[in-house]
Design brief:
With 153 residues, the chain is α+β, with helices and mostly antiparallel strands. The chain has one helix and four strands; from the N terminus they run ββββα. The chain binds zinc ion (6 copies).
Length: 153
């Protein structure tokens, strides 16, 4: 018989340092009560959002609240979805198209939170492309007529 295994195996039942939970270690095992391993649901301090996961009772919260919240865009009034820890002024409004006008007078097609002048204006680009196409057609037509003319000679 192994004497080392002979210890009291009843639950210890002392209260852990949290003051709420009973210790469920075996009485005879050497252990402390400074930390409480009980898994508990909790809310984040500050915002009071419930966490989707449980944590150990005495584990300090060192992570951020990722609860989904909606804020109203300060400049545009759109409802913006964000995670709780994200700063309001760092969240860009994703509403597309933004609906404001660019300097060229065309409607902005960027997201609301983006700079209206960011990137090229698609309308201006389309107009440019259309012009290029037309001038290409003209050139082709001209070269055709030149050819037919020279063929007749
Ligand atoms: Zn104990
Ligand atoms: Zn506890
Ligand atoms: Zn939160
Ligand atoms: Zn917006
Ligand atoms: Zn814009
Ligand atoms: Zn434009």
């Amino acid at each position: 018989m192994n004497i080392k295994n002979l210890y009291c195996s009843y639950p210890c039942e002392k209260i852990n340092s949290c003051g709420k939970h009973q210790c469920d270690n075996e009485c005879g095992k050497p252990h402390g009560h400074d930390s409480c391993p009980q898994k508990i649901p909790y809310r984040f301090p500050g915002c009071n959002h419930p966490s989707p996961k449980k944590k150990k009772c005495t584990e300090p919260i060192t992570w951020k609240c990722t609860y989904t919240v909606y804020i109203t865009g300060a400049n545009c009034g759109h409802p913006i979805k964000k995670q709780c820890y994200e700063k309001d002024n760092e969240v860009k409004c994703p509403v597309k198209p933004c609906g404001r006008k660019r300097k060229c007078g065309h409607l902005c097609r960027n997201a609301c939170g983006e700079d209206c002048e960011k990137g090229d204006c698609k309308n201006c680009n389309d107009i440019h492309k259309e012009k290029m196409k037309n001038s290409m057609k003209m050139q082709r037509r001209e070269s055709k007529t030149l050819k037919t003319r020279s063929a007749r000679r």
